[in-house]
Specification:
Structural Genomics Hypothetical 15.5 Kd Protein In mrcA-pckA Intergenic Region, Chain A; 11 strands; globular; 19% strand; Rossmann fold; single chain; alpha/beta; 8 helices; two-stranded antiparallel sheet
Length: 261
């Protein structure tokens, strides 16, 4: 907690957090608020746009250790899959703000290729790291010649398109390990969801099975499935797929999906 003296004027909550030094940026302040980490003596701050006094005492439940909440997702997956990317040449597809990238950098990767259609939202912490190479390109058209080295580990976090459209070209690059975030809401097909949310567990499992079968058709093999501890947009459940190149390393993934509650 940090307390300073300001005027009695009221400002947006995300701006107040930044002014008080409780967040590195307005963007990070917004993420902290949306995660339910920010509160006063009397209430939880629910919206970044909520007006509060600059003199109001603010408490933070827990600081996000990465530039976005996506980092929390990947960090949990690395722990669940028992993967250590230290010293690896890595590839992050769908970098956006840089949550996944931040995790990989903090865990000591040797080099990190970040791929996205643009880097407007990329955090300066990632942009300024000398280990990072930015490739502004649609990941559907990636080629081996885009990279100077063999990729040891790849991470994928894309939205509004099927994960399979990214895995097909990624298989040509053939990273030793791929950790891909599957988002059933973008795999189910338009018109099959009410307000963009999957609530029916049977339909969720069917969608995941179709995705897993599609993954195998791209040439990857599934070594593990792990549900993200943080839900996606609109509260959708999301699942990490650990993908490998060797069939003998794969698991019976149908049982993993059947066991989802």
């Amino acid at each position: 907690m940090k307390k300073e003296q300001f005027s009695n004027e009221r400002e947006r909550a995300d701006k107040v957090l930044f002014l008080k030094g409780l967040a590195e940026s307005r963007e990070k302040a917004e993420l902290m608020i949306r995660e339910g980490l920010v509160y006063t003596k009397n209430r939880l701050i629910l919206k970044p746009s909520e007006k509060i006094s600059l003199n109001e005492e603010i408490f933070i439940k827990e600081r996000i250790p990465f530039v976005s909440r996506g980092g929390i997702k990947l960090d949990s997956a690395l722990k669940a899959f028992n993967i250590n990317p230290e010293g690896c040449v890595s590839l992050d597809i769908g970098t956006s703000t840089g949550g996944f990238a931040d995790v990989l950098l903090q865990r000591g990767v040797k080099k990190l290729y970040c791929v996205d259609v643009n880097f407007i939202h990329l955090h300066n912490k990632i942009r300024n790291d000398k280990r990072v190479v930015l490739i502004q390109k649609n990941a559907r058209y990636l080629e081996e010649k885009d990279f100077e080295e063999k990729i040891d580990i790849a991470t994928v976090d894309v939205s509004f398109i099927s994960l399979l459209k990214i895995l097909k070209p990624l298989k040509i690059i053939s990273p030793e390990i791929t950790i891909a975030l599957g988002k059933p809401q973008f795999e189910a097909g338009r018109g099959k969801l009410k307000k963009g949310v999957i609530k029916d567990i049977k339909f969720l499992k069917e969608t995941l099975i179709n995705l897993a079968e599609g993954i195998e058709n791209t040439g990857f093999f599934i070594k593990g499935i792990f549900e993200s501890p943080i839900r996606g947009e609109k509260g959708n459940r999301e699942f990490f797929f650990l993908l490998v190149l060797k069939k003998e390393e794969s698991v019976e993934w149908r049982k993993l999906i059947e066991d989802i509650k």
